[in-house]
């Protein structure tokens, strides 16, 4: 048996303020930092020893990863950062308040943009640039559906994470609501028309246990203090 734990980063300032972020960097709130500490304390109780941690290129996920690893006394393990675990790019919605967008387009349309599988939010007219991606030769998206997010995420799973799991190496993934929904859809074989029912809260770890063939044996939502 081998273990995978996936965690959405702690609350960011954009989460608190109900703002679409996508590939925009925003810091954690005090509550977000506290959530990272709480996740670490909960994982410490499981006794899982990770061989690697995996996270995105976004500071809110990287900082949460470091907080968790410090709490479980595993800061020494390799941390693999990849743009493939980034939050989905919300295109022209980035930086906008979700309540304002709801007023403009209605709740049904907003739900499809946020929770649907193939729905693409309004695209940017000009592509953004950031040297962290320029150095990789990666073009920032104009907008992404969840399906597009899953397509760019799966090569990292297949080439990096899955082989380590098959070698018996426990893995930690700290990422984002949409990128983790895309991974959960793949791991749990969730139909396209049911993924809109899946929500991944900030700072609530999910524990997968796999057999030697990487088939899911057990899925557990780790209980946090106070729950």
Commentary on this structure:
The protein is of the alpha/beta class and 227 residues long. The chain is built from eight helices and six strands; from the N terminus they run E-H-H-E-H-E-H-H-H-H-E-H-E-E. It has helices at 13-17, 30-46, 59-71, 98-105, 107-115, 131-134, 146-166, 177-188, and strands at 2-8, 52-55, 79-81, 171-175, 206-210, 216-221. The protein has a six-stranded mixed beta sheet. The longest helix has 21 residues, at 146-166. Substrate binds at residues 8-15, 21-22, 60, 87-90, 98, 114-115. The record marks 176 as: Transition state stabilizer. It catalyses: (2R)-2-phosphoglycerate = (2R)-3-phosphoglycerate.
Main sheet characteristics: 6 strands, mixed
Structural class, by secondary structure, is: alpha/beta
Mean pLDDT: 94
Q: Mind telling me the C-alpha Rg? A: 17 Å
Tally of DSSP β-strands: 6
What is the terminal separation in angstroms? 28 Å
EC number: 5.4.2.11
Function: Catalyzes the interconversion of 2-phosphoglycerate and 3-phosphoglycerate.
Organism: Limosilactobacillus panis
Family: Belongs to the phosphoglycerate mutase family. BPG-dependent PGAM subfamily.
């Amino acid at each position: 048996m081998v273990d995978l734990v996936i965690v959405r980063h702690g609350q960011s300032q954009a989460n608190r303020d109900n703002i679409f972020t996508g590939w925009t960097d925003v810091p954690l709130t005090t509550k977000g930092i506290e959530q990272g500490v709480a996740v670490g304390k909960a994982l410490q109780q499981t006794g899982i020893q990770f061989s690697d941690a995996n996270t995105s290129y976004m500071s809110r996920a990287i900082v949460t990863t470091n907080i968790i690893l410090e709490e479980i006394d595993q800061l020494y393990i390799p941390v693999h950062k990849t743009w493939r675990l980034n939050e989905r790019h919300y295109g022209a919605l980035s930086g906008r308040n979700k309540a304002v967008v709801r007023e403009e387009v209605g709740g049904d349309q907003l739900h499809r943009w946020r929770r649907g599988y193939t729905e693409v939010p309004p695209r940017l007219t000009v592509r953004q640039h950031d040297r962290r991606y320029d150095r990789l030769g990666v073009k920032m998206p104009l907008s992404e559906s969840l399906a597009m997010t899953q397509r760019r995420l799966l090569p990292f799973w297949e080439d990096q994470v899955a082989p380590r799991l098959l070698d018996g190496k426990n893995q930690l993934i700290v990422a984002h609501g949409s990128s983790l929904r895309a991974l959960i859809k793949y791991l749990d074989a969730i139909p396209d028309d049911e993924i809109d029912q899946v929500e991944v809260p900030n700072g609530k770890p999910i524990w997968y246990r796999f057999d030697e063939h990487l088939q899911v044996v057990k899925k557990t939502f780790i209980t946090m203090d106070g729950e």
